[in-house]
Amino acid sequence: MDLSAAFPMWDTARMVLLGSDIRDLPPRRRAPSVLLGLNGEGDSLWHLGAALGAERVAVLPEAAAWLAEHLGSSDDPDPGGLVLGVTGGCGGAGASTAAVWLAQEAAVHGIRTLLVDGDSRGGGLELCLAAEDAPGLRWPDLADASGSIGTGQLSDSLPIAGGFSFLSWPGSRDRPLDVEPGAVAAVLDAARRGYELIIVDIGRGTESLGSFAWDCDRILLLAPAQLRAAVAAARLLQELPPVDTALVVRGNAGAALDGPLIAESLGLPLHGLLPELRGTAAAAELGRLLEFGKRKAVRRFAESVLQLLDDGAV
């Protein structure tokens, strides 16, 4: 396909849409705003989006309603709230724990915050909050969402814990329903309009990375201060979209020495040390993470990350 006809307007257009049949960008042209693909292209669509540097990926026809809404809002100068993704470079890295503590500290500072559970296989983030009985919507209630969701409609319908709203998968043994990327995009677009900070616990699976990571403005990658964890994080890093990504190392005080080395090996800025507190795993199991979030070491960690967000460093 000859793209030369689009060259005069390519860099001045508010938005550039590119079909997945285009495998290479024209020389010296900006990355597409949205990469369009069809249901059935599978993981190759997300890999192409990462290679091209696309800001968003839309899978059609499921994302048609979201795409129409996205195009209609392209003239709005207000980008809305910040979407921060948190993911673990390996299993047990502490991403969910960090996401909860960041949301808790943000709420303490008066920031309108939403915590989103992006891992349908993670057992339900609400269990870590001891909030499984809190009234409000869960992901299955929004599985068929599309197009525009009212800002007030969303915020008024979500449960609250620790001073922040949250959207979780149910903490039950039922098989989770599939939520299409279009529904995820519709929910996160509404969240941007209603909250100042949206923290997404992305998870590490291909499905959750594809559905949630592409809607994040910035991503924090968590990794324990261990060699194998660093290797696993390097592999996962290749699957993340082209957004600003920073490293958080989990460990005890000695990890402060290992952190810069791990960050350098990954080519990422180091933006925090998640403290290794005895009993954290048990606290997550018992729904007591919010209690641990009040500890000085945790608050120092969360405050430092939030400050970097405010400074635009993450």
TrEMBL record:
Pfam family, one: Rv3660c_N
Highest taxon of the lineage: Bacteria
Rv3660c-like CheY-like N-terminal domain mapped to chain residues: 5-77
NCBIfam families: CpaE_hom_Actino (TIGR03815)
UniProt protein name: Secretion/DNA translocation related CpaE-like protein
Lineage per the UniProt record: Bacteria, Bacillati, Actinomycetota, Actinomycetes, Micrococcales
